[in-house]
Amino acid sequence: MTPPITTSTTALEVQNEALLTRAAELESTWYRGPRMWFGTSGEPVTGTQVAKHLDAALGAMERDGWEPGTFGLREALAGATDVTGVSGRVLELVICAQTGASAAEPRLWDTVPGRTLDQVRTLLMAGAAYARRYGPRDAAQDTRRA
């Protein structure tokens, strides 16, 4: 069973700091060079693009309502293939950093019985924060990732 993701503001800030650090550690072991931040077309994707995509997904869920299996992460994350793919990898890092799992499919994660909107909201916010902090800033790709 997945540990709950805390939603109180103070606890969230403390937990997110540790969570984002753990996700960065996972990224460094899972991906070599800038691979993490390239879409399936081979085109680069910036952290800003991913953060905006995750923010938009959260906005869609807030606006349209979250109903696993009907309107969940799969539907809210739909969009440009490259940005959607990298967004999914970012969310996977966050889920795995939280749970200790070696892999996760975010578009299925929100369909687990007992999952709450607050947990999904927190995942999207943590993913956006991760992308802003660790994602490359421009399409030329940040050289620190090479």
Structure description:
The protein has 146 residues and is mainly alpha-helical. Helix content is 58%, strand content 0%. It contains six helices and no strands. Helix 1 crosses helix 6 and helix 2 crosses helix 4. 35% of the residues are buried. The C terminus is likely disordered.
Element layout with pairings:
Elements (H helix, E strand, L loop, with lengths): L8 H22 L16 H18 L8 H4 L4 H19 L6 H4 L7 H18 L12
Helix pairs in contact: 1-4, 1-6, 2-4, 2-6, 4-6
What is the average of the pLDDT values?
A: 86
Shape: globular
- Give the distance, in angstroms, between the N- and C-terminal Cα atoms: 36 Å
Low-confidence stretches: 142-146
Query: How many helices does DSSP assign?
Result: 6
- Residues in helices, as a percent range: 55-70%
Secondary-structure-derived class? mainly alpha
Query: What percent strand?
Result: under 5%
What descriptors fit this protein?
single chain, 146 residues, mainly alpha, 58% helix, 0% strand, globular, disordered C terminus
Please summarize what this structure is.
By secondary structure, this protein is mostly helical. The protein has six helices and no strands. It has helices at 9-30, 47-64, 73-76, 81-99, 106-109, 117-134.
